């Protein structure tokens, strides 16, 4: 029996790109049994909530999911379905590799992985307005939460990831020069964890503003970056910009028990149903998933064929080409067979 995987085609361009991804993985000989479930607008349109219980149960059972982008219905109670999933399964590590696939861009051979803490920091959403005199919103405040537990598990995750993926260096990114308690704790804990990996993985520390600048000036100096929630959100988008944008950026949300893999981009309602969306990001997310499942050969073959298809000039309109989603997927499949 193959690996049981929850498959959520998603909304907007989701079903189009996920269908292409399945075609590619089948051609690559992936050992998978897909357990298809719905969420987002697709679920709401069927008269359910945006995150139906059978979908949650399936993820809990299979522990691994490949997810297309979801449109968060406006006014449906959830701030975001993705945030809800992250909380429900304690998906504390967001892994965003940015690797050049298309030559002729601003940079060639960028290969950086941003590991973002996904559960703490300012994004816990502890914030409120403070009223003064007749202005109920005269001020606003937001609390940044960092725990020793959270900082330690993300730092360990980053070093273990670096070891498992034969990486050489981890850069811890912080703002401890200003935020002495929260960022100071994140840095201190990271430093302690780094000692356990001495001699195996090189370690360095950078302040976030300098990192943002250095990433643009010379991205080759970075290998694995580990940082807190908001800095990771910003730096990972910056890193995907270095390699050609969102159409090529996969992401993984990983917890102790469950891992959910997805493209970084959203449901792209402006091009949905036209058959022109770029399926690369969701295919690359699937590669991360098959690596996670131990099917590294599948991931390597698919990445090679996808890269060859792009180099060979088959490109969807977002990359300046004229290929449809299906034509591009067919080109990848030809490279596999
Ligand atoms: P988006 O990422 O969907 O689209 C931004 C722009 O990029 C659009 O012009 C779109 O056409 C283009 N684009 C995105 N993916 C593409 C692809 N694969 N190929 C070609 N072009 C692509 O962001 P948005 O418009 O801000 O959000 C639309 C919806 O998606 C919203 O409901 C939002 O909540 C949701 N969203 C979901 C996720 C997720 O499920 N992980 C992430 C982000 C946004």
Give a quick rundown of the structure.
With 337 residues, the chain is α/β, with parallel strands linked by helices. 39% of the residues lie in helices and 20% in strands.
Task: Write structural notes for this entry.
The mean pLDDT is 94. The radius of gyration is 20 Å and the shape is globular. The protein has a ten-stranded mixed sheet, with helices on both faces. A two-stranded antiparallel sheet has the order 6-7. It is built from eleven helices and twelve strands. With 337 residues, the chain is α/β, with parallel strands linked by helices. 39% of the residues lie in helices and 20% in strands. The protein has helices spanning 14-27, 41-45, 53-62, 81-88, 148-164, 182-195, 208-217, 229-242, 280-292, 296-311, 325-336; strands at residues 3-8, 32-36, 64-67, 93-99, 111-117, 127-132, 135-142, 169-174, 202-207, 224-227, 250-254, 259-263. Nicotinamide-adenine-dinucleotide (NAD) binds next to loops.
């Amino acid at each position: 029996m193959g690996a049981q995987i929850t498959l959520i085609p998603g909304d907007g361009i989701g079903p189009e790109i996920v269908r292409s991804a399945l075609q590619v993985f089948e051609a690559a000989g992936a050992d998978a049994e897909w357990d298809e479930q719905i969420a987002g607008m697709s679920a709401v349109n069927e008269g359910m909530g945006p995150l139906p219980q059978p979908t949650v149960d399936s993820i809990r059972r299979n522990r691994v999911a490949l997810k297309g982008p979801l449109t968060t219905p406006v006014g449906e109670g959830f701030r975001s379905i993705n945030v809800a999933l992250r909380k429900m399964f304690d998906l504390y590590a967001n892994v965003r590799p940015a690797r050049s696939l298309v030559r002729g861009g601003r940079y060639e051979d960028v290969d950086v992985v941003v590991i973002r803490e996904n559960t703490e920091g300012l994004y816990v959403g502890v914030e409120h307005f403070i009223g003064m005199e007749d202005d109920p919103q005269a001020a606003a405040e937001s609390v940044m939460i960092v725990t020793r537990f959270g900082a330690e598990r993300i730092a360990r995750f980053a070093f273990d990831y670096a070891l498992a993926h034969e990486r050489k260096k981890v850069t811890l990114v912080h703002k401890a020069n200003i935020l002495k308690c929260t960022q100071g704790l994140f840095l201190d804990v990271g430093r302690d964890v780094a000692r356990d990996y001495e001699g195996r993985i090189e370690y360095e520390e950078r302040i976030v503003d300098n990192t943002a600048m250095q990433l643009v000036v010379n991205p080759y100096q970075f290998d694995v970056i580990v940082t807190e929630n908001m800095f990771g959100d910003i730096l990972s988008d910056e890193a995907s910009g270095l390699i050609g944008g969102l159409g090529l950026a996969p992401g993984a949300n990983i917890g102790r028990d469950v891992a959910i893999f997805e493209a970084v981009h959203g449901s792209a309602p402006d091009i949905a149903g036209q058959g022109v969306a770029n399926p690369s990001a969701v295919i690359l997310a699937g590669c991360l998933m098959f690596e996670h499942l131990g099917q590294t050969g599948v991931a390597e073959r698919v990445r090679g064929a996808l890269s060859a298809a792009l180099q060979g000039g088959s490109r969807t309109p977002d990359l300046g080409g004229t290929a449809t989603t299906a034509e591009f997927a067919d080109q990848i499949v030809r490279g596999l067979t």
